[in-house]
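Fill in residues.
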């Protein structure tokens, strides 16, 4: 009797999180957990606007601080784009065809953490617990960085639907939270009574603008992430509008020009590399 050779054992690619064999190769209940987590997050956000939480308006709290790294009010409309993207992600990831999607399996847990951090941040912000806000914001930022890194490691052969509903959504979300973390930090130190020391508030605002522009440039050069860079430009334009003709406004304008220049250069290099 001939021995039929068995299929060779294939280890998952390096960095690829194995899907547990006990759930039949699927993501189990995670798609529904993600929907529940997002629903709770959106409910808390709605309560912050309609109640509002602790009787305080979200934007009015930040308006009470005279800080230099703060965009004009209209810039915060980006949350509408973010939440539409997250809703699109929630629908996409629960589709039957995505129940064995390893990219989505890799971000299930950090997505739930991001939803929890988003909701908790609103509560502590409205409660005026400013030191706690930066701690929660860092958790939110860390969870989105984890999502971003895991998605990028599995970006090959991604269809248009997944590109828009997943990759672009989390690029925009991460870009905004990166800016929001810096803005949150300036409010925390202002609440503590620090005036920027010898550098001054304007000096630190310029430092933060340079850091944001540098991060956008890195992601443009390494990952061609136009969505992330676009959010940085959007936020910095809002800071320029808020600051009028000040030195911070001029620094924000220079930062925008640098990011746009980097984007054009990255696009040009991509086009050249595609030539035969």
């Amino acid at each position: 009797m001939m021995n039929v050779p068995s299929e060779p054992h294939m280890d998952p690619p390096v960095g690829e999180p194995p899907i547990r064999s006990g759930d039949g190769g699927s993501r189990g209940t995670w798609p529904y957990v993600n929907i529940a987590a997002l629903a709770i997050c959106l409910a808390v956000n709605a309560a912050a606007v309609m109640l509002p939480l602790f009787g305080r308006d979200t934007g009015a709290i930040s308006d009470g601080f005279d800080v230099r790294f703060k965009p004009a009010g209209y810039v915060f409309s980006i949350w509408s784009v973010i939440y539409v993207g997250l809703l699109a992600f929630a629908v996409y990831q629960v589709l039957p065809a995505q129940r064995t999607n390893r990219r989505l399996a890799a971000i299930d847990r950090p997505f739930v953490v991001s939803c929890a951090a988003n909701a908790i941040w609103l509560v502590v912000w409205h409660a005026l617990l400013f030191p706690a806000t930066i701690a929660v914001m860092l958790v939110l930022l860390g969870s989105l960085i984890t999502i971003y890194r895991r998605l990028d490691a599995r970006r090959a052969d991604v269809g248009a639907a997944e590109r828009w509903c997943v990759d672009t959504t989390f690029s925009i979300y991460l870009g905004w939270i990166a800016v929001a973390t810096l803005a949150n930090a300036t409010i925390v130190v202002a609440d503590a009574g620090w005036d920027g020391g010898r550098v001054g508030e304007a000096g630190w605002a310029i430092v933060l603008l340079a850091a944001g522009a540098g991060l956008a440039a890195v992601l443009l050069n390494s990952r061609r992430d136009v969505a992330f860079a676009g959010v940085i430009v959007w936020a910095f334009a809002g800071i320029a509008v808020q600051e009028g003709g000040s030195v911070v406004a001029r620094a924000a304008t220079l930062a925008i020009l640098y990011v746009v220049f980097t984007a054009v250069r990255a696009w040009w290099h991509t086009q050249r590399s595609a030539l035969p």
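The longest helix spans residues 160-191.
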